[in-house]
Amino acid sequence: MRTRSTVVIEAAFARGGPVVALESSVLAQGLLPPHNRDAAERMLAAVEAAGATPAITAIVKGVPSFGLEPADLERFLARDGVRKVSSRDLGITVAQQADGATTVAGTLAMCTLAGIEVFATGGIGGVHRNAPYDESADLVALSHTPVIVVCAGAKSILDLPATLERLETLGVPVVGYRTRELPGFFSMNTGLALTASLDTPDQIAAAWLAHRAVGGRSAMLVVQPPPAASALPAELVNDATDAALAAASAAGVRGAAVTPFLLADIQRRTAGQSVVANLALLESNAALAGRIAVALAAARVESAPI
Ligand code: PSU
Ligand code: MN
Fold this sequence. Notes:
Blueprint: E1 4-5, H1 7-15, E2 19-22, H2 25-30, H3 35-49, E3 53-60, E4 63-66, H4 70-77, E5 83-85, H5 90-95, E6 100-102, H6 104-114, E7 118-120, H7 137-144, E8 148-151, H8 160-169, E9 174-177, E10 196-198, H9 201-213, E11 220-223, H10 234-250, H11 258-269, H12 273-303
Parallel strand pairs: 1-4, 2-3, 2-7, 5-6, 7-8, 8-11, 9-10, 9-11
Antiparallel strand pairs: 3-4, 3-6
Helix pairs in contact: 3-12, 6-7, 9-12, 10-11
Bound molecules: pseudouridine-5'-monophosphate and manganese (II) ion (MN).
């Protein structure tokens, strides 16, 4: 498969330096302008500050691309004819030479193409509430793609207990970063207990290498709560989510359009507070992913035969 990388990312690949993949669907479908530009800038800067190289993944006019050139980034931020690309959509988007913004599932496929092992996002997709068979392809992609995925849990719009059960079935470890419960994406707590909690990027790198050494082929989800200063009360999020779900069902929204619709509706219902939390958690997830990528590169050097 022909792929394209920016000069900086190509150089990072060539020297085997730490690289963090960033998804583009959150920019082209998840967040509205001007917030999507803030999100891109803050995530890129956070990965760099941690000493790693950020790579926004996208299909640019049919070419799987790592990093966006300025003109391409502008087109994606303007959400100008950019498709939402999950697992099923990748090949068709390439064949039709279209622009596509990759979801978690789409980005995991891109990580496989380039050998990237660390990826930061906001929240993964999962099992939808009261919608039999609406289950994000993110879950299946996580089950068979060996990448560390740093996130703030699954989106609050989902059935979180069911999503956690499916992750268990699919063999995807969920590790709390300095927390023992699943974060609620916009809010810090869900009351759902996790079976593993680690406190440092070095510990996460070691757990990852062990996961791989025992034959683990799935992703490892690393979840951390949104920064406390911008986190929303769980009750506010639940009320806004219930109202958004009712609006989606009344409007007959279906399929891939459900997630973007709900996120935009919640943004309106929380008077923009959800956006503040969303941007803050994207930035802190990118920062943690950068530190994990650096720790992983160091752990590999230490364990390499001399
Ligand atoms: N979380 C967000 N914003 C988003 C998404 C998640 O805060 O835009 C996107 C991610 O790209 C995720 C996708 O992979 O939604 C899941 O969509 P679906 O449920 O249609 O698989
Ligand atoms: Mn769906």
